[in-house]
Design the sequence.
C-alpha cells in the first residue's frame, strides 16, 4: 500500500533544508489550512451537484444539464451568484449574533473535516482521543443553529432552531453510543490506530452482530444529526419556509448551505472510519491474492468511495421518506434508539470480554 | 455584443430589437476590458442560477409545478432550487391574479428579496389583470406595484412559454452591468436621508 | 300543497311559499331563527345540511336565501328567503349555532352586502380588507377606484372583531372582541407559504408546537367573480368556472352549463353528455393525482410528488388533444361541448385506464404504505360524521368521515344514474381516510371511463342554441360532484341576457371552515398535513 506519508515527510525535509523550524511549521500550517479550505469548497460543491443529480434520477428527471457538460458547472454558477448576493441586515435583531452564527456552523464542520483520515499517511491531526474530539466539535454546530434561529427575530427560525436543538442533542446520545460501541471493540480512540485495527477485516465484519446494529443506529442518528430527511424538521420547508436560516441571504446563507452538505460528507466519513475500515482496502483474511489486488487501489480512493456510498444511502433516505413529526422523532430516539444502543453497548462489551469476535 | 443562450439561436427569439437596443444603450459609454470580463463572469453565474421564490396564487402556479415536474424539468437549467424564503431567492415569478389584499404582501416580498432581484409577470392576470381586469379588487397588472422584467402571457402559459420567458430573463441578465451599475451604498444613504429615525436600527 | 309545505305552515304561520324548481319559503326576519331551529330539529323534517347561503340585493330590500337539504328525506331541498328593507343597517339573525357551516358563509354575506348577523360570534369581513369602503355586491355599489385604491400598507387591527349580541330585552348591542387572547404566541402561516397550496393565510396560536386555535384569513385571491358575472352574458360568464377550482374545471363548467340548460329547458345530445362525463372523470383523476402529489410533498416525500405528476401529464395530454389547452380548458358550452373529441381520445383513455391500477400500487409502495406517512396521517385531524354534516364537508373529505354525500349517487345528474360505480366510504375520520378515499376514487373514475370509452354514441356534440341566450324570470340551483365536493350554482334571472345574481357555492369554502376544528390540539406539522388531506384550492374559496 502506498504511504502518502513519504511525500509529506519529504516536503517537510525540503522545507527544513532552508527554513528555520518555526517558519517551517508556519508555512506548513498555512499550506494545510489552504488545502483544507480548498478541499472543503470543492467537496461541498461536488456534494451539491451530487445530491441534485441523484435526486433528479430518483425522480425520473435529468437534473442540471445545461451549464457545462451534464451540468457540472451548475454549482459554480450558483456559488458566483451566492457570493455577490446582497447581505440583508435586519431591523431589531442582535446583529452580532446574527452574523456570528453562520461562522460557528462552518467552523465546526471545517474542524471536523480536518480530523478525517484521507489515506495512508494523509491525516492532519492525529490525537489519541481523535474520535472523541470529532464528537465534541460536531456538537458546536448546533450552537450556531440555535444562535441563527434566535438572532433572526422570526418565529419560524425560532421554532426551527428549537427543533434543531432538541433533535441534535437527543440524537447525539445514540450517535455517541454507537461510536463508543466500536471504541470498546477497538480499544482505542486514536484515528490512525482505528484504521490499522481494521487491516485484517473491517469492524463491521469483525464485530458482527453488535457492530452491524451499531452501524444501523449510527446511520439513523447521523441522518438526524445532519438535519436530513426524514429528520429535516429544523428546515422543514413546508412548515417553516426555510427553518432556522429563513432570514439569511447571500454568503451567510451560503455557509449554512455548504455546511449542510459537508456535514453529510463528514458523517459518511466517520461511518467509513468506524465501520468500513477508513481508507483501508477491503481485505478478506486468507485471500492474499485478492488483498494484494485491493491494495493496488490508492487508499484515498477507498476512503472517498466509501464515504460517497454512505452519502448516497443517506440521500436516498431523504428523497424517499416523508418527514417525521417532532414528537414522533423524539420518542423514537428516547424510547427505542437510545435503549437499543445501550443494550448494544453491553452486548459488544460481552462479546469483547468473551472473545466472541473475529 | 450578442447574447448567447445555449441551444437557442439569436433568431430563435422573437422581438430581438428590444434586447439589442438595451445592449447598445449599456455599451454606449464603453467598458473597461477587465471589468467587462468580470461582469461577464458574474452575469454568467446569475443567469445560470436563477432560484425562484415560490409565489403562486392560482392556476399558473400549477403549471409552474408542472414545469418543475419530470416532463419539463426546470432543473436542467438550474432553476429548480425553489426557495421559500425571499432572502435567498433571485426572482419572483408572479403566477396568478394579484388582488388588493395581496398587493402590500407582494410588495413586501419583493422588498425582502436580496439584490440582484428580478420580477417575472406570468400569466394574463399578472400581466394585465386578465379576465378579472374589471373587478373591484383586482390589481390590473403587477406593474402597478413592482418593476417587471419579463412578461409571459397566457392563461395559464404553457411550461414551454415559461421557459421562453426565463430564457429572456437570462438574456437580460447577461447584458446587465454588475460593476458600475446600481450603487447600493447610494441607495442606502438615500434611505437614511429620508428616514433618519431608522439609523442605528439597521446598518 | 305538499307535505313539507303543510308542516312549515304549522311551524310558522306567517310563511308564504313560492313554487319553482325547489320550494321557496318566504319568512319574516323575526320568525327566521325559530323556523330554522324547527327545520333542523323537528322529527320528520331534519334539514341537517345547509347547502348554500346566498346574499341577495333586490334593490328595495336586502336578504339571504338559504338552501337546506335533508339527508333523511332523500336529499330533499328547500329554499328559505329572508328579507330586510333597512339598507343602512340591515340585520338578520345568525344560524351559525345551528349549522356551523354558516359561520363563514354569513361572514361572506356580510362582506358582500353589509348584512350584519345577530349573535354571530365573529363578524369580520371575510374576503376584503377590513378598511374596504362599501359592499361590492350591492347593486348601488360605487366602484370608483379612488374610494378603494391599491393599498400599500398592511391592514391594521387584524385582531379586532365584533359581535352583535341580542340582549334579553331584544336590544342589539355591538360587543367588540379579540380573535386571540393576549398572551397567545401567534404563528402566521401564509399568504405566501409553500404549504398553503395558494394564498391562504392561517394564523395559529400555538402552545409550544401544539396548535390552540387557527384563524383563517381569506381573500388573498378574491377576484370578485360573482360581481363580474352580473355584467356578462351567460356564455361569457362560463369561462370563470375554469379559473375558480382549476382542478375541477370541467365539473364546475358542467354545473353552470347544466344550470343554464335547465333554465332554458334545453336537451343536451347524448354524445355531448357522455363526453362531458368522461371529461369530468378525467379531471377528477388529474385532481386526485395532484392532491396525492401535494400531500406527499407537504410531508416531505418529494419523489412521490413527481410520480403523481408523471401520470397527471398523461391526463393533461388527453385534454390538450381534445380541448387545446392543458389547463383552463373552456370545453363545455351551453348545449354541449365546443369541439368533438380528438381521434386519439379513445386510445389515450384506454392507455390511462390500463396503467393506472399498477401506478396506484406504486404510489402506495412509495408513499402511503410507508410507516412514517401512516403515522403522520392516521389519527390526525379527527372530523366526526356529525361535524362533517354540520360543516357540510362534502367530497372525498366528507366521505373519509363515512358520510355518504356523493352527488353522483344521492341525486344523479347527467348520465350518472346509468353507470355502475361505487361510492367510496371510509370510517377513519382522519387524514389517512381522506387520502385513501381519493386514491380509491381514482379507481372508480377509471371504472366509469372503462364503461364509457367504447360506447361514445354518434351524434351531435352540441344542441342548437339561440344566438342570444336569455333565461326566463326565475331562480335555479344546480349541484354537481366536483373533485373536492359538492359544487353548486345559483342563478337568479330577471329575463335579461345577463344574470341578476350568479352565486357559486364552492366545496373548498366549507373545507377551510373546519381547519380550526380539525387542527386544534394537534401540532403545527399536523396543520400542514391536515390542510393537505382536506385538499382545498384557494381560488375556489375566494372566487
Sequence:
Amino acid at each position: 500500500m502506498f504511504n502518502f506519508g513519504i511525500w509529506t515527510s519529504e516536503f517537510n525535509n525540503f522545507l527544513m533544508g532552508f527554513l528555520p523550524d518555526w517558519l517551517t511549521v508556519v508555512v506548513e500550517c498555512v499550506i494545510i489550512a489552504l488545502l483544507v479550505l480548498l478541499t472543503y469548497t470543492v467537496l461541498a460543491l461536488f456534494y451539491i451537484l451530487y445530491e441534485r443529480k441523484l435526486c433528479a434520477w430518483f425522480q425520473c428527471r435529468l437534473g442540471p444539464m445545461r451549464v457545462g457538460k451534464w451540468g457540472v458547472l451548475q454549482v459554480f454558477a450558483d456559488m458566483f451568484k451566492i457570493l455577490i448576493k446582497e447581505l440583508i441586515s435586519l431591523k431589531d435583531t442582535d446583529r452580532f449574533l446574527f452574523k456570528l452564527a453562520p461562522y460557528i456552523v462552518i467552523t465546526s464542520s471545517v474542524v471536523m473535516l480536518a480530523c478525517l483520515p484521507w489515506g495512508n499517511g494523509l491525516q492532519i491531526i492525529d490525537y489519541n482521543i481523535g474520535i472523541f474530539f470529532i464528537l465534541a466539535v460536531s456538537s458546536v454546530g448546533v450552537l450556531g443553529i440555535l444562535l441563527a434561529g434566535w438572532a433572526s427575530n422570526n418565529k419560524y427560525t425560532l421554532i426551527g432552531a428549537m427543533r434543531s436543538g432538541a433533535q441534535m442533542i437527543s440524537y447525539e446520545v445514540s450517535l455517541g453510543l454507537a461510536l463508543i460501541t466500536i471504541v470498546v471493540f477497538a480499544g482505542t480512540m486514536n484515528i490512525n490506530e482505528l484504521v490499522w485495527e481494521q487491516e485484517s477485516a473491517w469492524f463491521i465484519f469483525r464485530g458482527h452482530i453488535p457492530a452491524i446494529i451499531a452501524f444501523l443506529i449510527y446511520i439513523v442518528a447521523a441522518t438526524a444529526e445532519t438535519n436530513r430527511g426524514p429528520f429535516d424538521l429544523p428546515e422543514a420547508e413546508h412548515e417553516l419556509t426555510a427553518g432556522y436560516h429563513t432570514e439569511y441571504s447571500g454568503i451567510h446563507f451560503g455557509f449554512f448551505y455548504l455546511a449542510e452538505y459537508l456535514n453529510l460528507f463528514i458523517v459518511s466519513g466517520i461511518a467509513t472510519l468506524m465501520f468500513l475500515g477508513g481508507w483501508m482496502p477491503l481485505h478478506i483474511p486468507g485471500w492474499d491474492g485478492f488483498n494484494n489486488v485491493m491494495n493496488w487501489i490508492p487508499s484515498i480512493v477507498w476512503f472517498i468511495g466509501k464515504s460517497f456510498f454512505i452519502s448516497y444511502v443517506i440521500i436516498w433516505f431523504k428523497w424517499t421518506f416523508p418527514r417525521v413529526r417532532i414528537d414522533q422523532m423524539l420518542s423514537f430516539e428516547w424510547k427505542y434508539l437510545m435503549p437499543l444502543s445501550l443494550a448494544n453497548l453491553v452486548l459488544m462489551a460481552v462479546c469483547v470480554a468473551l472473545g466472541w469476535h473475529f | 455584443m450578442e447574447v448567447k443562450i445555449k441551444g437557442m439561436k439569436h433568431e430563435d427569439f422573437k422581438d430581438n430589437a428590444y434586447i439589442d437596443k438595451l445592449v447598445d444603450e449599456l455599451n454606449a459609454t464603453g467598458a473597461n476590458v477587465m471589468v467587462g470580463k468580470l461582469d461577464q463572469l458574474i452575469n454568467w453565474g446569475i443567469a445560470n442560477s436563477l432560484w425562484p421564490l415560490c409565489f403562486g396564487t392560482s392556476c399558473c402556479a400549477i403549471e409552474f409545478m408542472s414545469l418543475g415536474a419530470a416532463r419539463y424539468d426546470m432543473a436542467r437549467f438550474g432553476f429548480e432550487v425553489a426557495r421559500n424564503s425571499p432572502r435567498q431567492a433571485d426572482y419572483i415569478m408572479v403566477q396568478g391574479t394579484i388582488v388588493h389584499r395581496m398587493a402590500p404582501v407582494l410588495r413586501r416580498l419583493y422588498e425582502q428579496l436580496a439584490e440582484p432581484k428580478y420580477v417575472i409577470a406570468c400569466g394574463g392576470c399578472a400581466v394585465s389583470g386578465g379576465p378579472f381586469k374589471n373587478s373591484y379588487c383586482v390589481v390590473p397588472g403587477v406593474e402597478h406595484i413592482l418593476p417587471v422584467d419579463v412578461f409571459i402571457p397566457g392563461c395559464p402559459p404553457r411550461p414551454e412559454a415559461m421557459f421562453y420567458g426565463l430564457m429572456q430573463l437570462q438574456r437580460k441578465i447577461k447584458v446587465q452591468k454588475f460593476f458600475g451599475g446600481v450603487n447600493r451604498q447610494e441607495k442606502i444613504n438615500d434611505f437614511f436621508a429620508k428616514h433618519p429615525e431608522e439609523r442605528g436600527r439597521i446598518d | 300543497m305538499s307535505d313539507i309545505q303543510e308542516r312549515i305552515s304549522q311551524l310558522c304561520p306567517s310563511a308564504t311559499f313560492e313554487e319553482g324548481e325547489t320550494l321557496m319559503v318566504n319568512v319574516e326576519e323575526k320568525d327566521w331563527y325559530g323556523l330554522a331551529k324547527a327545520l333542523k330539529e323537528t322529527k320528520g323534517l331534519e334539514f341537517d345540511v345547509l347547502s348554500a347561503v346566498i346574499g341577495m340585493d333586490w334593490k328595495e330590500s336586502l336578504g339571504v336565501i338559504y338552501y337546506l337539504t335533508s339527508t333523511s328525506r332523500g336529499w330533499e331541498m328547500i329554499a328559505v328567503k329572508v328579507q330586510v328593507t333597512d339598507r343602512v343597517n340591515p340585520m338578520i339573525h345568525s344560524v351559525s349555532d345551528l349549522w356551523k357551516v354558516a359561520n363563514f358563509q354569513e361572514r361572506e354575506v356580510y362582506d358582500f352586502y353589509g348584512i350584519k348577523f345577530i349573535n354571530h360570534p365573529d363578524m369580520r369581513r371575510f374576503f376584503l380588507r377590513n378598511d374596504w369602503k362599501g359592499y361590492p355586491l350591492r347593486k348601488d355599489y360605487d366602484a370608483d377606484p379612488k374610494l378603494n385604491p391599491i393599498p400599500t400598507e398592511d391592514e391594521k387591527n387584524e385582531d379586532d372583531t365584533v359581535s352583535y349580541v341580542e340582549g334579553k330585552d331584544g336590544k342589539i348591542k355591538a360587543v367588540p372582541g379579540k380573535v386571540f387572547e393576549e398572551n397567545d404566541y401567534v404563528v402566521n402561516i401564509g399568504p405566501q407559504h409553500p404549504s398553503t397550496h395558494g394564498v391562504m393565510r392561517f394564523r395559529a396560536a400555538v402552545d409550544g408546537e401544539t396548535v390552540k386555535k387557527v384563524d383563517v384569513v381569506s381573500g388573498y385571491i378574491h377576484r370578485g367573480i360573482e360581481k363580474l358575472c352580473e355584467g356578462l352574458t351567460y356564455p361569457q360568464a362560463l369561462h370563470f368556472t375554469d379559473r375558480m377550482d382549476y382542478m375541477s374545471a370541467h365539473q364546475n363548467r358542467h354545473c353552470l352549463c347544466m344550470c343554464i340548460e335547465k333554465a332554458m329547458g334545453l336537451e343536451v345530445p347524448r354524445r355531448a353528455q357522455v363526453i362531458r362525463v368522461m371529461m369530468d372523470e378525467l379531471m377528477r383523476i388529474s385532481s386526485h393525482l395532484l392532491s396525492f402529489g401535494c400531500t406527499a410533498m407537504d410531508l416531505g416525500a418529494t419523489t412521490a410528488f413527481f410520480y403523481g405528476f408523471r401520470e397527471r401529464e398523461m391526463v393533461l395530454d388527453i385534454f390538450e388533444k381534445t380541448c387545446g389547452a392543458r389547463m383552463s380548458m373552456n370545453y363545455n358550452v351551453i348545449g354541449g361541448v365546443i369541439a368533438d373529441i380528438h381521434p386519439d381520445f379513445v386510445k389515450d383513455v384506454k392507455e390511462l385506464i390500463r396503467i393506472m391500477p399498477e401506478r396506484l400500487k406504486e404510489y402506495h409502495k412509495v408513499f402511503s404504505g410507508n410507516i412514517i406517512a401512516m403515522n403522520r396521517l392516521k389519527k390526525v385531524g379527527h372530523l366526526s360524521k356529525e361535524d362533517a354534516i354540520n360543516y357540510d364537508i362534502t367530497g372525498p373529505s366528507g366521505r373519509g368521515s363515512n358520510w355518504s354525500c356523493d352527488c353522483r349517487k344521492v341525486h344523479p345528474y347527467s348520465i350518472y344514474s346509468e353507470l355502475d360505480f361505487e361510492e367510496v366510504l371510509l370510517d377513519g375520520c382522519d387524514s389517512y381516510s381522506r387520502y385513501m378515499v381519493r386514491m380509491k376514487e381514482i379507481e372508480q373514475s377509471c371504472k366509469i371511463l372503462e364503461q364509457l370509452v367504447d360506447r361514445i354514441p354518434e351524434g351531435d356534440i352540441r344542441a342548437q342554441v339561440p344566438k342570444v341566450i336569455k333565461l326566463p324570470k326565475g331562480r335555479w340551483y344546480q349541484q354537481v360532484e366536483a373533485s373536492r365536493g359538492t359544487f353548486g350554482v345559483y342563478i337568479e334571472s330577471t329575463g335579461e341576457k345577463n344574470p341578476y345574481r350568479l352565486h357559486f357555492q364552492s366545496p373548498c369554502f366549507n373545507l377551510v371552515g373546519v381547519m380550526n376544528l380539525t387542527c386544534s390540539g394537534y401540532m403545527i406539522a399536523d396543520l400542514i398535513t391536515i390542510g393537505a388531506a382536506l385538499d382545498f384550492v384557494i381560488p375556489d374559496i375566494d372566487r
User: Anything to note?
Assistant: The radius of gyration of chain C is 23 Å. Chain C has a mean pLDDT of 85. The first strand of chain C starts at residue 16 and ends at 18.
